[in-house]
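Q: Sequence in, structure out?
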Amino acid sequence: MTLERQIKQAVLPTLDREWKIYVIHHSHTDLGYTDRQEKIEQYHVDFIRQALHIVNEAHNGIKPEWKGFHWTCETFWAVEQFLKQAGDEEKAAFADAVRRGDIELSGTYLNMTELPDMLLLNKIHGKAQRYADSIGYQIDSAMTADINGYSWGYADSLLDNGIRHLFSCIHTHHGMYALGRKQSPFWWEAPSGERLLVWNGDHYMLGNELGLCPGALGKYMIRDEFGHRRMEPAHIHDPIANTRIHRYLAQLEAERYPYDFVPVMLSGLPTDNGSPNSAIIEWIEAWNRRSGEVVSVEMITLSSFFARLKEEGTDGLPVHKGDWPDWWTDGVSSTPMHTQIYRDAQRTLRKVEKLDPEQKSVSLQDIEAVEQSLALYAEHTWGYHSSVYEPWHKNVQLLEVRKAAHAAEASRLAYRALDQALLADNAATLYPGRPYRFKVTNLSEREVTELVQLNLEGWEPDELLNGVEVIREDTGEVLIQQSTHPQTSIVELKLQSMENCILILRPLLVAQLDQSCLTSTSNSKLIGADQVYDMEDMYTLTQSSLQAPITVFQNGLESPFIHLTWSEDRGVFSWIDKETGRELLKPDDSYGAFTPIYEVTNPANPADASQVWSIRSRMGRNRKGLNVDRSVGQLVSVRAVDNGPLFATVELGYQLKGIAYFSLFLRVYARQNRLDISVRLHKESVWNPENVYLALPFTSGGTGPVTLFADKPGGLVRPWKDQIPGTCLDYSSVQSGIAWQDNDRSLLLAVPDTPLVQWGTLDYGLRKVHTQQAPDAQPGAYAWLMTNYWETNFKATLGGFYEFQYSISAGGRLLAEDMAAALQALNEPFVVARVNEK
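A: Exactly. Output:
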């Protein structure tokens, strides 16, 4: 059937209301999806120039047909780039247009993932308002596009910067909207108790699909009978627009939509990073002359729309409090190494700010340079649109290295700032005769006991042939030490919040040499000449002072605080907290602690390269296919790496598909209920969609019901409890880590490198959103290390070498603020610097 015949046969529904469509004209900002990042930057600068030309021509009466045109700057990043390039006259004209209301500023900086911490969110959300203040203007509204949620603290970061309204334009490709319905307003109660007025909107280019932009018909959310092209002539375009507009409004009426107006977002071209288009306002004028009595259309700004919404009254709107997990936050695990570098850089920047709070050695400009690189990496775009089906494409390669460069630059600048702060605090550069003095500082908000590693240069051990002792300068105390390498000494140190001390390495005399490595044979320890310790001793005798406090067996280990047991098929299946005698692993869980899990969804025809794209496009919100092939790591080797008075290290080697090498290095503390985990792996290069997880089947080991907490910007949240209805249950991105707590015990897990945590089942099946789960359902936990399932702009392969760190600490029950501080402290080892003499 021809398109003309389809149009003639289309049934136009009757509307029961007189409608007003409010059009918000913007350009969706994707840093890299459609072209090189620097080219997109120049596009957006020019878009503002184009919009400024249109509104000024209308304002001056030169183009009266453009009267009523309004341009909304979706992100302040675009404005920032424009202001860098604009001359004084152009800046003044732009400021005038903003004050007139012809151009509007959004209070958001970019469309972000959940990587930024609260401090970074507050800084980037303050940029637009600071500029507005400079021109005598006040911003009250913000918008986002593409992303499907935000950490709970996001609301406070907007409110703290004077933003009272948020327009959320969701994108349901592998995601979903909150509340169970789009185009609906609500109050979002922030952690502070303040409220943000939110419009839970539709797709950011819905107006294009409805036909409100000539030459830019879309067909993405609307799937009707019209097999049109985007650039249809007016005699085809207008009838399609008329049909779609009436059908859309009739659907709203059928769904009992409460208003007689509706907002739609609109781009000037049928693409992300699209320009302004003056033809839209001309088309709107023609529409209103023809059909305005039944359906009128008006182009407005964000603040004007929210003012109109408030005329209807907002006191009766629903109030929701809690987290709004973003379905698209899983992009952070598509580039796991770069995300790891980003997170380290963000923590390093926070150390700099604490070491130099008055910015005496590190300038504000230095700090802002780090923040800029952090913001650009944390933006939601992960690569070029064809990164999966043509990973060899030049633009795929260019955009990938540019994205990675933001994390690398943030790291470089953050560490340079750290070096500057330490040098200003007497840090020693390299020179002959440099003293063996180390300044150790606890920058956390609580008392911390930490293993401190003191590193020497490669030639320095020759000067210390007989070994060293470590002395705390202020007390003269000789500290117990342990060495894993000739160039390192490790000691345990307790420091109060913001306390520091000096440690000195002093050469030992021959008479002082440590004899602990020289032991006689035992008459009761059941270990053979092969040195394999795979039996329990029949006699438990008092340990000698030379014996390490941690015992490592072939099938487990025991410290003064924990008893671990592992097996070939189950990995670490028992984790006894000796302080309580209780198990810290869930007895009914399918996987052992930190067991690696690999998933791949193979196409029906592996020889058909096009299927690597198509198989991903059908995954929906499962992030895997119905035929997913799951491999669980099998324990194949155990090796005691070292053992001493402070800690023991054991390597557990696993075997599983998709990963050529996988080892867990467990560092068990002898004097604390703590364990550090290092995950080392060599991921094979596979083009098909994959996921890699670590099982975290923990519980708190006390009495009463167990509650799971996640540290997110703005504070702790309880997954599956502190959430907006209709939001993602399966996973979220966290900051410092997660914790399990009951009536009297808590278990803390720090995740410095891999922020994505899977809460729901790994099984393929019907996905549920918040409030659809059983009232008593408890979330599980998996560290989601990496994924490449997305069919457009994720990296096609995850192959390479990786190392990720974790820390676990068990203890008594904590208040919420103490728990957050404790999780952060686990992520922030003491700052150690070699220093000069006093």
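Residues 542-546 have pLDDT under 50 and may be disordered.
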